[in-house]
Each structure stands twice: as C-alpha cells, then as structure tokens.
Amino acid sequence: MSDKKPTINDVARQAGVSKRTVSRVLNGSASVGERTRILIQQVIEKLDYSPDKQARGLASSRSYLLGLIYDNPDALYIDQVQRGVLDICTRRGYELVVHPCQYQSKNLVQESLSFIRRSRIDGVIVLPPVSESRELAAALREEGCQYVRMASVDLDDHANIVVSDDRAAVSEMARYFVSLGHQHIGFISGPLNYRSSTERLEGFRDSLRAQGLDLTQDSIAEGRNSYDSGLECANRLLSQNPRPTAIFANNDEMAAAVLRVAVSMNIRVPEQLSVAGFDDNILASRIIPSLTTIQRPVAAMATLAAQKIIQAIESHGNQVQRDDFLVKPHLIIRESAGPYSDN
C-alpha cells in the first residue's frame, strides 16, 4: 500500500468532478450543488485528504487561522467555546489560536491588535466580557479584521454578533422560584461592570417586580464568576436573619459554591434552600444535589460564530446579512430547587 499523501487531484478523479469544484467545496462556496458537495466530502473522508494549509494560504493570501480573545475564569465555559469553534475549523481547514487577556487592562485594544498582527489571523471571535468593548470593536473594524462578538446584548450588526437572550432566561428562572412559593430570594451577580451581569440582574429583578416581589439591595451579592467568590457571597447571604429561601447565582460555578456553604451551615437543599445557576456546564448534572440551572448552548453559539466569521472571510466581508444571531437559553429543572417550606 502506498504511503503517498492523497492530493486534490485524487479527490477530483474519484468524485468525477473538476479540481476547481473540489476547491470550491473546501472553501465553503455556495455555488456547488448539495449532492455534489456531499459526494466530494465522502471522497475526502474516504481518502483521509486534508488540504495543505501553507499552500492554501499562499494561493489565497490567507493564513487559515482564527483567533479567540477572552477573559473568563470559567474553564468549562472556555472549553465549550473551543469545542464549538474547532468543530467548524476542522471541517473547513482552519486552525484556532487563543489569546487570554485582561478585560480591565488599559492596553486591551493595543494588545489585541498586536496579537492579531503577530499571528496573522484571518478573523477573530471575541467572548464576553471582552466582546462588550466598543473600543475594541471599533479598532477591529479600523484594522480590517473580520470579527464576531459573542454577547448577552445586541451590540452590533447581526453579521458580527451571536447573542444569548439572557434576560428572557433569567425571567423564566424568577417565575419558577415564585411558582415554588419563594418570596425571600437572594441573587449572586457577576461583576456589575460587565453587561452580561447587569443584564441578568435587571432581568431577574424586573421579573420579580412583575410578580409583586422586590429584590432588595441586601439580597444582592456581587461575585466574580469564580467558585471562591461564590463562597464569599453565599456566606454573606446565608448569614442574614432571615436568610433567603432561594438563591440564584450568575453561573454554575458560584451556584456550586452556594451548595458547599449550605452543607457547612447544615442547611438542607432543597428542603430549606433552593439553589440555581446559569450555563448548565458539565458539572451541573453530576454534583449532589444536581443543579437546577439555565442551559445556555455555548458550543452551539461558538459554532455559529465560527460559521459567520469564515463566511465573512471567504466572501471578503461581502456576505449576505444573516438573521440567525439570537440563541435562547432555557430552564433545566433538577434536584437543587424545591417548594418553599417554613420548617
């Protein structure tokens, strides 16, 4: 058996099409019919063919590199994002380069641009809270770098953004807590200088008000979206008298910290305290009790972001406006939340 690496000519010959048609499929062109595209992809998989990225880059003046810029302490969130992006990159012949940064840094824009120039990336996906920076978005446009922002608020043209409707999701959570009979409800926010955090806080508070309840300032604790900050916030809320009978946390990591503090204070969950989080990361269904949460389809959002940015790159920014920019998280009910009891 020959060890010779298959070429695009081999793919074209076995598929019975021209090399140009194979090239169009590899570059995601919409001009190839569905049956032909499927046939070519089957041949590519059969031959285990992969394009020479260096040759492709020289021929097209592209690097076939996508960048990912983020500042988020939640490793499980970042893992889901990378899985979603890499799913598209693998199929379309791109590689992913990551750039952790400090959102609060005064050099955020310059450091991000330096990363883009140094890595010669074709486009960049920006995660919250970095995606909330107007200055960075303006600098990317000025630089001529294709970008897609993942966010909780509609901040940009729909071709350049993927939005999670967090406000609607937390409103659903507030209604669920009230339906269980809870009236004294605590809230652990993320950093309140992040739009995503304020969006969730305002959405939750507005929903409670619509149901005749108020989220008092004493019932709100500002966390940092980390487990340790969740411990601090939970200790503060659960030391109050009277203490909340339900707590919603800005992410699953801080919600898990609430469960830990409840155990240390001999507070039974969900009999004496209902707890809920946001994200539905991999641990939410595995901890005891399993966590009621908002399932945000992070990997699907990242996949959509990658599809959008590759479309923009390969159409030189002249892509057709896409309406598919909004995803809807939804409530997942598990063991950590239950009816209010005064016992």
Automatic annotation (TrEMBL):
Single GO MF annotation? DNA-binding transcription factor activity
What are the entry keywords?
DNA-binding, Transcription, Transcription regulation
Q: What is this protein called?
A: LacI family transcriptional regulator
* Tree of life domain: Bacteria
Asked if Nuclease is a keyword of the record, the answer is no
Q: What range(s) does the HTH lacI-type domain occupy?
A: 6-60
The yes or no answer to whether the keyword DNA-binding is present is yes
Q: For this UniProt entry, which segments traverse the membrane?
A: none
Q: Which SMART domains match?
A: HTH_LACI (SM00354)
